[in-house]
Amino acid sequence: MELRHLTGFIATAEELHFGRAARRLHLAQPALSQQIRQLEAELGVELFHRSTRSVVLSDAGAALLEPARKILEDVELLRRRATLGAGEIAGRVTLGFTGASSRGVLPELARAVRAERPGIELVLVGQTYAGTAVADIAAGRLDIGFARLPVADPGLRTLAFAREELVVALPSDHPLAERERIAVAELAGEPFVTFPGVQGSSVRDALVRAALDAGFAPRIVQEAPDSYTILSLVAAGVGVTLTVSSVRHIATPGLVFRELTDPPAPLEAVLVSRREERSAAVRAVWEIAGRVLSAGADG
């Protein structure tokens, strides 16, 4: 089995079109087709179901896809290590991020890792909920991730970098949208849109807590998996929401943000990793993050 066979298989599996995959690899289509046939002959299985109209992964092809990707990733890691000088650190570090809290610092952190530790492959994993990172890090599925306090697991460490205020998001034609500031109690009769309760969202928890402190239980009429969808639903008039100030950059027609006259305590955005970390690459990224995020917080 040759690496070029795996490269051709992965490209074809992702494109599901021999012509597009061949162009992506700068190959002639017959050459790519021959590579796939050679791989199928060596494995003794059919990797694709082909017809004149479509190319579809077979069960065997679907089972091979992730292992093939892992093999090529490992080969790239070997190449990195072979070209590094003495004392350099090589490895793969997975970093989970969400849209709002990580938006301002993630690009700077990624650039700093590439510049200071070129032997480290930083794999960015997009996540819907900040709370997902905590569970994934504890389970070993991620190395580092963005989240919000509290983080109760004693086996994890945190690095605070931002404090996010709660704000109210309203449809632009809502009667309260004419006001510059709104009290939480004034939202008592409103329908709310927020994150699902089963996902452990710190933003949803803060919304419920603020409403209860104001003397009412929020009437949640719609749940959505991310801030962009929630704010689109608010703009459409489905309801209102309490959300973090870091989502103000989402400029959706029909949506306005207003400050609260009685804002609850800010939510603290943090980076999370395992306290007892054996990987030198993860420790190196954490050390770089400490400098980058501290500079951002000071600014």
Automatic annotation (TrEMBL):
Keyword field: DNA-binding, Transcription, Transcription regulation
Gene3D superfamilies, per database record: Periplasmic binding protein-like II, Winged helix-like DNA-binding domain superfamily/Winged helix DNA-binding domain
Single annotated GO MF: DNA binding
Domain HTH lysR-type: 1-58
Annotated PROSITE patterns: HTH_LYSR
Domain of life: Bacteria
GO cellular component, as recorded: protein-DNA complex
UniProt record similarity statement: Belongs to the LysR transcriptional regulatory family.
Name recorded for this polypeptide: LysR family transcriptional regulator
